[in-house]
Write a structure and sequence with these properties.
By secondary structure, the chain is of the alpha+beta class. It has 2 helices and 15 strands. It folds into 3 domains: 66 residues, no CATH class; 204 residues, Methyl-accepting chemotaxis protein (Helix Hairpins); 105 residues, Immunoglobulin-like.
């Protein structure tokens, strides 16, 4: 507060943990009479946090951005690994397709050659089979004819014509037997050769079928792998772009979180707290007091201190003055019996006593008070220095 001229107000703090404090106004003798309204103003440093909700929201956004960036980075890493695997598989299948393609000409040639060799062998076998059948039939006919000629000759043994017919039939029998033996002897070798060429042709055809299937399979696999590689390349590009975007979003969220956290850091600011108005009325003083304490106000616990008090009456005051020692808050164990300065006297002695548990040290806000009747109840205070020791 800003007091009127010649009115003193002590300024002191209300310490932390304390809810109240006593403040004294000392109206000097030369203060102008009148009614004054005073306003007590206090200030203190308080902790202020600016936009804590924004800082909390930014921190939450940062957490989400960190999570998204980590997930995007992991997805990009997996996409790179998948692309490497797809590239390797594409290389491997291309090598397999090349190998199958290189094997096809040889398989085709072998199949063609064995098929070509199988045809004359088969034809030779068919020819031998026919020759065997034909000569066997001729031999059987010769046997039948020889038997018939013998039967006829047995009926007429001296018949020269029958004898000749029998001899011709025997000769034909020998001839046809010899003719049948020749293809029959050649047949096993021809059959064996036909079987071998047929087996070789079959194996070559089977091998060609395997090679053809391998080519078809590797071509299909190569197409699928190529499609997979395209997809892997696209996935890697997409995840890389997403990862970059997530990293940029994370950087922005980190900056925003840092900026809002800095803004929201607690700061001490001066806050001013108003109080209710105080009205005081200053009247003309009936007089002034002067005090003189023995030993400069030094007082031991359990001892007493004489204080000489002199009154100087003014403004027509002529009555008695009642002296007392009011104690401010926080001071205990110090007291003085009231003393009256008669109307015809100007001084008296106030005896101040201290108990064994009296407050120690320089006692603050101690005054000697003079009370009197002067235009109603009036009082005059005079500060006094008292220092209590053990």
């Amino acid at each position: 507060m800003t007091p009127p001229q010649n009115v003193q107000v002590e300024n002191k703090p209300i310490n932390k943990g304390v809810s109240e404090q006593l403040y004294r106004l000392f109206v000097q003798n030369n203060a102008a009479p009148g009614t004054y309204t005073l306003f007590v103003q206090s200030n203190s440093q308080v902790q202020y946090i600016r936009h804590p909700e924004a800082a909390a929201a930014a921190a939450k956004e940062k957490e989400a951005a960190d999570k998204a960036a980590a997930e995007a980075a992991e997805a990009a890493k997996k996409a790179v690994e998948a692309k490497a695997a797809a590239d390797k598989k594409a290389t491997d299948t291309a090598a397999e397709a090349k190998k199958a393609a290189e094997a096809k000409p040889a398989a085709d040639k072998l199949a063609a050659d064995t098929a070509a060799a199988d045809k004359p062998a088969a034809e030779e076998k068919a020819k031998i089979d026919k020759a065997v059948a034909d000569t066997a039939a001729a031999a059987k006919a010769a046997v039948d004819a020889a038997a018939k000629a013998q039967e006829e000759l047995d009926k007429d043994a001296n018949n020269e014509a029958l004898k000749k017919a029998k001899a011709d039939a025997d000769a034909l029998l020998v001839k046809t037997a010899l003719e049948a033996k020749k293809p029959a002897d050649a047949k096993p070798a021809v059959d064996k050769k036909a079987a071998e060429t047929a087996e070789a042709a079959k194996k070559a055809a089977d091998a060609k079928a395997v090679v053809d299937k391998a080519i078809a399979d590797t071509e299909a696999a190569a197409k699928k792998v190529a499609d997979d590689k395209v997809a892997a390349d696209k996935a890697m590009a997409d995840t890389e772009q997403s990862s970059k975007a997530a990293a940029a979003a994370k950087a922005a969220a980190d900056k925003k979180a840092t900026d809002t956290a800095n803004v929201a850091k607690p700061q001490n600011i001066n806050a001013f707290f108003p109080a209710a108005a105080i009205t005081i009325t200053v009247k003309p003083a009936p007089g002034t007091l002067a005090v003189a304490a023995a030993n400069n106000g030094a007082l031991k616990r359990g001892a007493s201190l004489d204080v000489k008090v002199t009154v100087n009456r003014t403004n027509g005051f002529t009555g008695p003055v009642n002296l007392s020692l009011p104690l401010p808050p926080g001071v205990t164990g110090v007291a003085a019996d009231p003393v009256t300065i008669p109307a015809d006297k100007n001084e008296a002695t106030l005896v101040v006593k201290a108990t064994g548990e009296a407050t120690m040290g320089q006692l603050a806000n101690m005054v000697v008070r003079g009370s009197m009747e002067f235009d109603g109840q009036a009082a005059v205070d005079q500060p006094i220095a008292i220092n209590v020791s053990q």
